[in-house]
Amino acid sequence: MTTQQKQQQYQAATQEINAILAGEKNMILKMATINCVLKQHLDYYYWVGFYCMNQGALMVGPYQGTLGCLHIPLSKGVCGRAARLQQTQIVTDVHADPEHLACDSLTNSEIVLPVFDPQGNLIAVFDVDSTQTGAFDTVDEEYLTKLLTAHFKEAALQQHYL
Ligand code: SME
């Protein structure tokens, strides 16, 4: 896929997500919608979802794909590293990353981004996995950072389910 095609897919997905989520506040609703629309537009996505901060560790939240790990301590996985460092992680080849947790052996590359609430607290990480090696780059990082910032950090956010 060319960079231009990737940008077009992100632009279409972002427009759709922004329209659907206009005025919405609930965190779970936003997470579920973002997963669904991104996975429909970005054809190299294999697993997409959120791991939410819960009592100092990560707990699986809304996702689309094969069965994910249920709990990830901050000391483990690329997800744990993204949460610990509060920085985006792009892993070109997960088999070359000793911290990677192999929940699904078909995954070959991934991107994990921290998700912040309006107070700047880390509330989750957003994890996307691909069966392609080297599927993610700074284009993914740029679009996903903007999307997550707009819908969680700079948005009204109701963190309780009800
Ligand atoms: N990619 C993660 C594990 C979770 S799943 O792949 C769904 C990691 O290494 O942190």
Helix/strand layout:
Elements: H1 3-20, H2 27-41, E1 47-54, E2 57-64, E3 71-72, H3 77-85, E4 89-91, E5 109-116, E6 122-130, H4 138-153
Antiparallel strand pairs: 1-2, 1-6, 2-3, 4-5, 5-6
Helix pairs in contact: 1-2, 1-4
In helices, the fraction of residues equals 25-40%
Total of helices: 4
Alpha carbon gap, first and last residue: 40 Å
Q: How many individual domains?
A: 1
The rough form would be described as: globular
Give the name of the CATH superfamily.
GAF domain
One letter per element, helices H and strands E, the order comes to: HHEEEHEEEH
How would you describe this protein?
This protein has 162 residues and is α+β, with helices and mostly antiparallel strands. The protein has one domain (3-153): GAF domain (Beta-Lactamase), CATH 3.30.450. Helix content is 36%, strand content 23%. The chain contains four helices and six strands; from the N terminus they run ααβββαβββα. It has helices spanning 3-20, 27-41, 77-85, 138-153; strands spanning 47-54, 57-64, 71-72, 89-91, 109-116, 122-130. It has a six-stranded antiparallel beta sheet with strand order 3-2-1-6-5-4, sandwiched between helices. Strand 5 (109-116) and strand 6 form a beta hairpin. The longest helix is centred in the first third of the chain and has 18 residues, at 3-20. The model has no long low-confidence stretch (mean pLDDT 96). It binds methionine sulfoxide. Residues 47, 68-69, 72, 77-79, 100-101, 103, 107, 110, 127, 129 line the site of methionine sulfoxide.
